[in-house]
Write a structure and sequence with these properties.
0% strand; rod-shaped; mainly alpha; 3 helices
Length: 73
């Protein structure tokens, strides 16, 4: 329950008398899928994302190298 409440694994390890935080993590994150999900979400928030253009995916927007008739300049 402490892990689900956001308590650091090292603290939980010491509370339970485990030999390592890895043992605590291996034992309880499989029992508490929401803990694993929350960790994945937190990691995903760290990944920079590009802003999408408003163009439909797969469509080509004209750029400076394309003339109005579609030919490359």
């Amino acid at each position: 329950m402490a892990l689900a409440a956001g308590v650091d694994r090292k603290v939980v390890q010491e509370m339970l008398g485990h030999s390592s935080a890895a043992l605590t993590s291996d034992t309880y994150t499989s029992v508490l899928p929401e803990v694993a999900h929350d960790a994945a979400e937190a990691a995903a928030r760290l990944v920079p994302r590009q802003k999408r253009s408003r163009a439909h995916p797969g469509s080509r927007e004209p750029n400076s190298s394309t003339s109005t008739d579609g030919c490359v300049a």
